[in-house]
Amino acid sequence: MSGLFDDLRDLYQEVILDHGRKPRNFRRLEDADATARGDNPMCGDRIELFVKHAPDGTIADVAFQGRGCAISTASASIMTEVVKGKDDAAARALGATFRELAMTGACPDCDAALADDMERLAPLSGVHEFPSRVKCATLAWHTLNAALDGTKEASSE
Amino acid sequence: MDGTTATGFDVQRIRQDFPILSQPQARGRPLVFLDSGASAQKPRAVIDAMVRCMETAYANVHRGAYRLSELATDAYEAARAATARFINAADAREIVFTKNSTEAMNLVAHGWGRGVLKPGQAVLISELEHHANIVPWQMLRDDRGNELRVCRVTETGEIDMEDLAAKLADGKVGLVAMAHMSNVLGTVAPVERIVAMAHAAGAKVLLDGSQAAVHRRVDVQAIGCDFYCFTGHKLYGPTGIGVLWARLEHLDRMPPFLGGGDMISLVTFEKSEWAPPPAKFEAGTPPIIEAVGLHAAIDYVTAIGMGAIEAHERALVDHAMGALSEVPGLTLLGRAQDRGGVFAFALDAAHPHDLATLLDRAGICVRAGRHCAEPLHARFGMENGTTRASFGLYTTKEEVDLLAQALTEAREFFK
């Protein structure tokens, strides 16, 4: 059906709708060694993030639970897939680059090391055209930083 | 199409009074503004009155012994008199201008709540209140220990009158504070009955009329309440001006909230004496231009007729109930018998924020979230929030149909 909303397919790409409907790693991690709760008080989005590290300091497993819109759910779901196997510093660096992408739509310093991951995150870049929705895409990443910092709570306000 | 009703209400002619409604939106779509419950658009009469005030008759009020200041004072006090007539207050001195409804309710919580309400008395609100009628009473409770009771709301979204009676029964409630019309469910409360029950139990009554005053003719003397709050910007007037109406006996007993100029009759460094109400509660330079705008807004809706506006909105509500019930997967929050043009709903396939983003593309402005009524959304198990469409006197049936069609398409989009 050619509809009212066809031009919104850039924002709501199929991969986002898919992750939004069937989020990956959507569960509790009972043996997590780092957790945090993320809130977006404006819209009521809320996630709880669980991280478990391997002995070598890399992220062995990461999972989340919560509620939110398609964009925040998809962003959290994709994030859990891309940070697995990274150490904390690499996960934070990826998050910083992703936030830049979400706010500007551009990825000026996507060097080769980040290129594969950023390609997976690229479908979310459409939010930069919707200022009120950028926070939806970045909530999971703020929450990851809070978990790694040990501050337990993050807000995307 | 001729939209003129038996009352002479012509929605197409009314739409021409609102300059913003002819501003084309993204991709040339017309504006479909369904967020009037948050803040309404402004008619030319209000815009012009405020500009005219600034261009021809502006100075500070209650101060200058010169003609311009007298003109401004007259205009400000004329707005108070018009506001008193609008809600049938017995005396213009019962009208206190505030910043908005929220400030009006906080003024009662601070002044009357701390100055008149007794230590052992409780405040009774309901589950459907806006945060502005919850938080000030929580602050009073935490400060002074006055119990805060919450009356239940039924599954249809109406005040549970049995629970109201039960919570009034011990005679400890000093104030019942409730919304005249819910900003989420659209429910119009049976305020005369609530007032009768509260007064019989020894409680005063505050009504939050932020929504109701826009959609119904309000007669505070017929309702019989003690305090009534509403705001200018939802009534097609400007932001920055709200109204507290209270019986003079209550205003006389209430200590002031803010201290400063214009609210005193005598000041020495040892002590000050308060001016009589309403000046006692209007410290500092008041919202003069905004009062002129509110006056113009009141004149505007009064000329159309609150009865005609109510009839138009009742027809729209009936139409919307039909149109929205045909949208697959839509759950409407609240099905009160007596309701106004506010519809909060959930769509099974889409989160409210995703939905609002989509509708915006169709030129349709709706609100998504919990509409400053988080406990009410929890009560109905809607933690994700809802999408809300709220009507104004310029809303048309065609706009409601466009919303219903867009919702149906949005559901396909997310499926």
Describe the structure.
The complex is a heterodimer of chains A (157) and B (415). Chain A has 157 residues and is α+β, with helices and mostly antiparallel strands. Chain A has five helices and four strands; from the N terminus they run H-E-E-E-H-H-H-H-E. Chain A has one domain: Sufe protein. Chain: A (Alpha-Beta Complex). In chain A, strands 3-2-1-4 form a four-stranded mixed β-sheet. Chain A starts with 13 loop residues before the first helix and ends with a strand. Chain B has two domains: 129 residues, Aspartate Aminotransferase, domain 1 (Alpha-Beta Complex); 255 residues, Type I PLP-dependent aspartate aminotransferase-like (Major domain) (Aspartate Aminotransferase, domain 2, 3-Layer(aba) Sandwich). Chain B contains 15 helices and 15 strands. In chain B, the strands form four sheets. A seven-stranded mixed β-sheet of chain B has the order 2-8-7-6-5-3-4, with helices on both faces. Chain B has a four-stranded antiparallel β-sheet with strand order 11-12-15-14, covered by helices on one side. A two-stranded parallel sheet of chain B has the order 1-13. The longest helix of chain B is centred in the N-terminal third of the chain and has 20 residues. At the A-B interface, loops of A face helix 13 and helix 15 of B.
